[in-house]
Amino acid sequence: MKADVDKAGVSGARRTQREATRNRVLNAARELFETQGYEGTTIREIARHAGVSVGSVFTTFASKGEILSQVMQDRLEPLYAELDHVMPHLRGSTADRLRTMFAIHFAFEARRMRLFLAHIAAAYDWTMPPEARPYGNTPRLQDVIRECLQKGVDEGDVDPAIDFQEIIDLLMAAYAWTYRLVVRKNADAAELTQVMDRQIGLIAEGFRPRA
Known about the structure:
The chain is mostly helical. The chain has ten helices and no strands. 73% of the residues lie in helices and 0% in strands.
């Protein structure tokens, strides 16, 4: 009986240690991705910054891409909780609801703009493992847009014959491309939102019902 208790204690301690290591790795990676970018950050630097061995990092995560994916997943959960609360109560046209949704995104990402740029950059890393979730491979964002478009179909201002995925891809591409202005002009959330508002207007011309 005592042996069983001892084993349970050891097992619990190991879980606690693994969780502590995981959190240290994620916190270190978050800082490095934001200051050095995705390409500029290495697993070795993450390990050193976290105060753990490289082996401990790979015991917890399979790749740098998976680390970034977890950093962003943990960070974006509050954003999607806010959208789940706000989106059902929005009024106006589908284009207006999309504008509000992306404005919320810009305001949220303004807190750690460079970290989101790292998230976008990772989408173009051809070595990214299948389990990683860079920008674009983010089902929750696509679901929010899809639900908004479906509501537009139900209300009559979105053509039911459109290919939802094509519109989703266009909106997500426009959103990501708008962030170039952060690098080129140090644009803030308000400036990014103004640009995206115009792009949504153009895209909306493609999904509105035809007479």
